[in-house]
Amino acid sequence: MAIPTGAMAGSDTPVYSPPPSTEAQPSAPGKISVCVLASGSKGNAVYVSDGTCAVLIDAGLSGKAIETRMAERGLCPDQLTAIIVSHEHTDHIQGVGVLSRRHRVPVYIAPETLKAAPQIGKLHEVRPFACGRTFQLGGFQVHPFSVSHDATDPAGFTFQQNGTKIGIATDLGIATGMIRTQLKDCALLVLEANHDPDMLISGPYPWPLKQRIKSRCGHLSNQETTTLLREIAHDRLRHVVLAHLSETNNTPEAAFHTVGPALNNCRARLWVARQDRCGELLAL
Q1: What is the C-alpha separation between 104 and 80, in angstroms, rounded?
Q2: CA-to-CA distance for 108 and 1, rounded, in angstroms?
Q3: At the N or C end, where does the chain have fewer CB atoms within 10 A?
Q4: What is the pLDDT of residues 23-61, one digit of tens each?
Q5: What's the per-residue H, E or C state across 120-177?
Q6: Distance between CA atoms of residues 63 and 150, nearest Å
Q7: What are 161-219's pLDDT values in tens digits?
């Protein structure tokens, strides 16, 4: 599960063990909930719902694994309104085809991304989107925006409803000015904190892979995420989930201690998403 700090960011007593199990429930109508079902290089999926419209952003585990993790939080795949695909890498699309066919879920995907992902298989229904063009999904206004990553047409997303905005941006090598603009004023953020630079350089990866991760088309480091958060944090920000941590080049503790001080001047709760555990259902 996503691991809460056990204290507000900036506290001297972070806790890295999961909280006691709770009987989490999907949002009541009009209340937004977010759950990071999985995050990392082995598979990514984020659940967003307002109690009426339920969306998966990516489905990078097997269909069965995603169904299992949803069930852990009392969520039903048959109630999914849509799956939205950020880009074509396997850790974001592995379960998309299976879930789409099995539960008759339409898939929102950029045309170039679909062309680059023949392994996605047959889909129940394809609904194309374009970065920069907002589309309506139930009560949500969904805005896909371009990010810098080594994929065909990668996207981050904001969801807005009744004045509440959430932002999801992982797999981005650089936080551009446009990305900063898109992620301002969010009540909840799912942000990449992929690696600690020293761990990456001294770690076991071959040099070309290290260069790719560090590049403008790779992944954000803990320090880069800290800089981004310092610029976009505000008083109404309630939750930040650090996502897509490298299991080799980062630790939850390193990510928390590096990024946490960026939230010292607001009361946002800092969480660290995990690859092997379903996150908490966070409500707004």
Answers
A1: 9
A2: 26
A3: C
A4: 345 555 668 999 999 999 999 999 999 999 999 999 999
A5: HCCCCEEEECCCCCCEEECCEEEEEEECCCCCCCCEEEEEEECCEEEEEECCCCCCCH
A6: 25
A7: 999 999 999 999 899 999 999 999 999 999 999 999 999 999 999 999 999 888 877 88
What is the maximal distance between C-alpha atoms in the chain? 50
- Rounded to the nearest 10 degrees, what angle do helices 96-103 and 63-72 cross at? 70
Amino acid present at 106: P
